[in-house]
Amino acid sequence: MGTELRRITDGNHGVARLTPAPDHGGTFLGMPKFQKAVKHELELNVQRKNMRNATTTIRNKRALRVSESPDWEELREAATEIKNRVSRHLDYYLEEAEKSLTAHGVHVHWARDGQEANQIVAEIAQAKGVDEVVKIKSITTQETDLNEYLEEQGIAAWETDLAELIVQLGHDRPSHIVVPAIHRNRAEVREIFLREMKNYGRPAPEDVSENPPELANAARLHLREKFLRAKMAVSGGNFVLADTGSLVIVESEGNGRMCLTLPDTLVSMVGIEKILPSFDDLEVFLKLLPRSATGERMNPYNSVWSGVTDGDGPQEQHVIFMDNGRTDVLADQVGREVLRCIRCASCINTCPVYERAGGHAYGSVYPGPIGISLTPQLRGVEDAVDRAMPYACSLCGACNEVCPVKIPFTDIILHLRHKVAQAEKADRFGADAEGTVERNLMKTAGWIFGDAKHFEAVQVATRGAGKVLKGKPLGPIPVPVAERWLKYRDVQAPPADTFRSWWKKNRQEGK
C-alpha cells in the first residue's frame, strides 16, 4: 500500500507503475512497539491537531445521527445477536455462502492465511494477463499487504478511494480503518497531489488550491483513466449474505461502483467472519454502519451484487474467503466477541489514546481499541509489537459504549493482558512457569494461612524486618521478580509491631 513508488515507463499505456521498496518501508512490518513508537508520534504537533479536529467532527456527527434513532439500542442488540449466531454456526453459513455463490457463477477460493490469499489474487491476474488492477478500499487486503505482494509480481495496484490514494501517493501508511488519511490536512494533500500525481498518470492542475472540491476533482480526473483502462478489480466486502450469495459494499464516493462495473474480472477478498445469514439481516447493519462510521443516515453508494450477469458488470468473479488467524480467535471464548466487528471505527474515533497517539503508533493496520483487541489474537503474542498493544489503553470504556455490535473491548483487552503476562512469564521461567512459580507461591501462602502458629511465626520475622528498616520504604531486593516489581513502586516497611502482639499487650482478658 505505502511502498516506495518508482517511475517505470510502461509501453502498453505509457504510465508509471508501482514497484516495491527493498525494505517494505511503507508497511507496518518491523515497526517498534507502541510504547516506543508513540514517543515519536506525540512530537508531531500538526498531526495531533489534524487527528483531534477530525475525530471530534466524526464523534459529533455520530452522536447527532444516533440521537435521531429512537430504536438505536434495539438495533445494537439485534446486530449483536445476528453476529453471535454467525459465530456459533460459522461452518454452516460459510458452506451455504459457497453454494449460493457458486450457483451464481462465482469462483470460490479458501485461503488459510494472508500469503495464500495474496497468491490467489496474483495467480488470477497473471492468468488474465494484466499488469495492473484497480482497488476498492479494503482493510482486509491491507492486513495481508496485498499491494506490496502484487508489486513484487510486477502488477501495479491502484487505490481508488480518495483517502487511500492520498496515502499511496504520499508513500505513507493508513492511520485509520475508515479514513486512512485522517492524519493529513488540506495543505498536505495539495502538496502530495502536485508532487506525485504527474509521476503515475494524469497530473494535478498546477493551480489547484486547498479547496476540497478542487482536490477531489483532481483525484477524479487522475483516476478516470485508470478506471477506463483496467481489466481487473480487487475489492473487499462489508458483508456476504449466505442465503443469496450476495456481496455488499458501502461507500461514499462512487469509486467502488466504478470498480464493480467496468473491469472484466472482479476478485473480492473477505474475512470468514463477514458472513450474514440472510438478506433480511442486512437491514439492521445498513442502519448501524453509516451512522457509526461517518455520521451519515445512509451511505451514498450501497452496492449489492449476486454473481455474474451476462453483459452487465464483470464477467468473471472470484471470492476468496480468508482465515488468517480468525479460527484461532473463534476458539477463544472471551476473545471471539471481537469477530462481531463491522469495521465502523466508532471505537477508534472515541478513543482518547488513539486521538493523541495516532494510528501509526500501533504497528498494525488496525489501530485503536479494535486493533489492540484483534491484532494480538490474529498474530499471536510472540512478537514485542503484539505484546505491547493491549497496554495501549486507559480502560476508560468509551469504546464499549459506542460499539454498534456491543463488543466488550475492555474485557477482551484485560484478557489479552493476562495472555501477554503468561507468555512473558513462560519466556523467563520456561513453559511450565504456571506450574512452578505460581504453584509454589500458592503452596507457601497456604502453609502460612492454614495454621495460626505458622502465621504467627511469619509475623515474628516481619516484626524483625520492621525494626531493622525503622519505617523506611522497601528498597531493591536481590530476587529477580521482586527487584523488577519494586523498581517502580514504593512499598512501606512492615510494622515493628503487629496487631497480634499489640492485642496481647493491651487487651488480654482480666486486665
TrEMBL record:
Protein's GO biological process: lactate metabolic process
Question: What positions does the domain 4Fe-4S ferredoxin-type occupy?
Answer: 337-407
Q: What domain of life is recorded for the organism? A: Bacteria
Q: Which GO terms describe its molecular function?
A: 4 iron, 4 sulfur cluster binding; metal ion binding
| One Pfam family in the UniProt entry | Fer4_8
Task: Return the InterPro entries for the record.
Answer: 4Fe4S_Fe-S-bd (IPR017896), 4Fe4S_Fe_S_CS (IPR017900), FTHF_cligase-like_sf (IPR024185), Helical_ferredxn (IPR009051), LUD_dom (IPR003741), LutB/LldF (IPR004452), NagB/RpiA_transferase-like (IPR037171)
Residue ranges of the LUD domain? Answer: 94-321
**Which controlled-vocabulary keywords does the entry list?**
4Fe-4S, Electron transport, Iron, Iron-sulfur, Metal-binding, Repeat, Transport
Coiled coil location: none
State the NCBIfam families in the record: LutB/LldF family L-lactate oxidation iron-sulfur protein (TIGR00273)
UniProt name for this protein: Lactate utilization protein B
In which organism is this protein found?
Acidipropionibacterium jensenii
The organism's lineage is: Bacteria, Bacillati, Actinomycetota, Actinomycetes, Propionibacteriales
